[in-house]
Amino acid sequence: MSELKQLYAEIARCQKCEIAKLRTRTVPGEGAENAEILFIGEAPGFHEDQQGRPFVGAAGQFLDRLLTSINLKRDQVYIANVIKCRPPGNRDPLPEEISNCRHWLDRQIALLSPKMIVTLGRYSMAMFFPGKTISKIHGTAQTENGVIHFAMYHPAAALHQQALRKELEADIKKIPAILAQSKAAANPPPPPEPQLKQLNLFEV
Ligand code: URA
User: Fold this and answer.
1) Which of 20, 21, 97, 138 has the fewest CB atoms within 10 Å, measured from its CB?
2) Is the pTM of this model over 0.90?
3) Which residues line ligand 1 (CB under 6 A)?
4) Does residue 57 fall inside a structural domain?
5) By residue range, what is the domain housing residue 67?
6) 108 CA → ligand 1 middle, Å
7) Number of structural domains, the chain?
8) Is residue 199 part of a domain?
9) Mutate to test the pocket of ligand 1, among 24, 25, 42 (most ligand atoms within 8 A of CB)
10) What is the pLDDT along the chain (204 residues), one digit of tens a residue?
């Protein structure tokens, strides 16, 4: 069993918050264990709680379409949430729930070691861009300890607001170039071989 799968088993036993009693399943996250990009949403909703999988409802379908627009499939990235249990009635996660759950996400990040973390929505953004406002920083990247952090609106917000849909569609398209640029900076091409001076046999 991979360390990530062991982590899922530990998460499934977690009873730290009251909402643990209300869940059908924990939703630890899923995707490629060697993914370069980790998407972090907010919290499981109804369908996620039923299936134990992240982003499987309407917001998830939109996320899938966003991924397709940059030639990625769900199983090439990793998708997780700030909290692993569904808040009742899909209310916002409480500060205590976020801090109780934080160590699971930290362990997940350590195991995945992604090149890029994409935050989806305000709660996820607040973890990696403290004190920032989503309307100001969405679509921008910041590198910390060698990991690119990139903020986006939450896909669910785009389901109700056409303007945000356009922002999400534009923001996700920036990801491939940002990733390629950071790879190029990390592995600069070797300097050209010094040219050997051509031998001129007639030189005196
Ligand atoms: N919204 C989230 O933030 N996460 C999910 O898994 C589903 C909807």
Assistant:
1) 21
2) yes
3) 41-45, 48, 54-55, 59-60, 81, 156
4) yes
5) 3-176
6) 17
7) 1
8) no
9) 42
10) 799 999 999 999 999 999 999 999 999 999 999 999 999 999 999 999 999 999 999 999 999 999 999 999 999 999 999 999 999 998 999 999 999 999 999 999 999 999 999 999 999 999 999 999 999 999 999 999 999 999 999 999 999 899 999 999 999 999 999 999 998 888 887 888 877 666 565 555
